[in-house]
Amino acid sequence: MSEIVNRVEQSGLISVDLADYCPKNSEFMGFDFEPSLWNGLVLKEKDFREYVKTFDWNQFAGKHAYLYCSVEAILPSWAFMLVSSKLVGIAASVSIGTLAEAKQKALELYIDQLDTTPFTDGKLIVKGCSDIPQPEAAMSQFLVKVQPICSSIMYGEACSSVPIYKKPKQR
Question: By the 8 A CB rule, do 116 and 146 touch?
């Protein structure tokens, strides 16, 4: 009887699951502008500045903050800047939008800070079935980060992969 050989293992392929780069134990916390609105409709600068001044920002310590408004309201652009300025140095990150968008931004930050050394001259295969928000965006960002140092990048599984990039041979 012949020995079973794992040809995928011998191929030198590096399997990458982007879910492995998702923030594992990160906490997310939203800041809703709604409680600071005058008559639930509009933000008044003087009142809002007082609200921001007395708000407990420390509850966002180490968390990924996302800013949103749960009601239809008129919000000036500077209001987002003012709140963001209070979160600098406290929150792990700040984004505008939904919880899903905050998770996407956190993943992008992790990919941005990724040590690419293990992928140098590697043959990567990026898993297609990943439990991450907006996998296309994360995959594209990952590709942009590692393509300059890889010899090849594929998408899918070892048994059925789609070639994405192959480093041109040097003459």
Answer: yes
Instruction: Report the alpha-carbon distance of residue 123 to residue 15 in Å, rounded.
Output: 9
Given a contact cutoff of 8 angstroms between Cβ atoms, the answer to whether 123 and 163 are in contact is: no
Model pTM above 0.70: yes
Tell me: the pLDDT tens digits for 142-154?
Answer: 999 999 999 999 9
31 burial type by CB count under 10 A (0-12 exposed, 13-18 middle, 19+ buried) = buried
Strands (E), the chain: 13-16, 28-32, 64-68, 93-96, 123-126, 152-157, 160-166
Q: Where are the domains of the chain?
A: 7-23+109-166, 28-91
Q: How many CA atoms lie within 13 A of 112 on its CB side?
A: 7
Closest CA to 78 of 35, 37, 45: 45
DSSP alpha helices (H): ranges in 68-134?
77-87, 99-112
Cα(99)–Cα(93) distance, rounded to whole angstroms? 12
Give the span between the Cα atoms of 8 and 149, in whole angstroms.
21
pLDDT (tens digit per residue) in 56-90: 999 999 999 999 999 999 899 999 999 999 999 99
SS3 93: strand
The token duo for 33 is 């502008």
